[in-house]
Amino acid sequence: MRQIPRLFVDQPLAPGASLTLEGGQAHYLGTVLRLGPGAEVRLLDDATGEWAATILDVRKRALTLTLARNVAPRETPPDLWLLAAPIRRERYEWIVEKATELGVARIQPVLTERTNRERLNLDRLRAHMVEAAEQCERTALPELSAPVPLAGLLDGWQPGRQLLFADEDGGAPMASLSPRLPAALLIGPEGGFSPTERAAILRVGGVARLSLGPRILRADTAVVAAIAQFQAFAGA
Length: 236
What we know:
Elements: E1 6-8, E2 18-22, H1 23-32, E3 40-44, E4 50-58, E5 62-72, E6 80-84, H2 89-102, E7 106-111, H3 122-135, E8 143-144, E9 148-149, H4 150-155, E10 162-166, E11 183-187, H5 195-202, E12 207-210, H6 219-234
Parallel strand pairs: 1-3, 6-7, 6-11, 7-8, 7-9, 10-11, 10-12
Antiparallel strand pairs: 2-5, 3-4, 4-5
Helix pairs in contact: 2-3, 2-6
């Protein structure tokens, strides 16, 4: 039995509405999957949930569908932020994919002294988020924010949100930190935070130093380990 394709669209969805897909999405459904009139598709708008839709018409560069019913509400991701310094492009895209699959609420790139300062393509990152959410049956996308300097992030920190700092120089295991929502996980770049940055982080009210175990982890591995541990111990 063929799995029903799922697509996020940038249009509001409502029962009985019809909409036209063009470009890559139309090519994917009509040419790659070779779907024709009468085929069922699932559409998502990151606002109202998941909708069953039926293809009405397939043209060379466009495809028209009609919406039937809402089959699932939009999920509410746990209020967990990922604050991750950019690393090499393909590895950061992987981070974004896995954070989306794991269900964080927000992804915030953080610029540090040792950050790979390659310019982030937010549109490309969002495309990776969308693809991950479509494949893993997510009905919500994380908020993807523009990069901010670490100093600015810390200056505006609200103490009501627990800040868990993955510290290579030590810290406590997740289980002993009483992880709770709302929270944020701060993961540094390849090479870690500078001494000045570590001192600034540790001055933030309510910050907790997190150890991810006895082994040195790559930044992308640390992200997945931290999110998974938080969700396990916080029940998120």
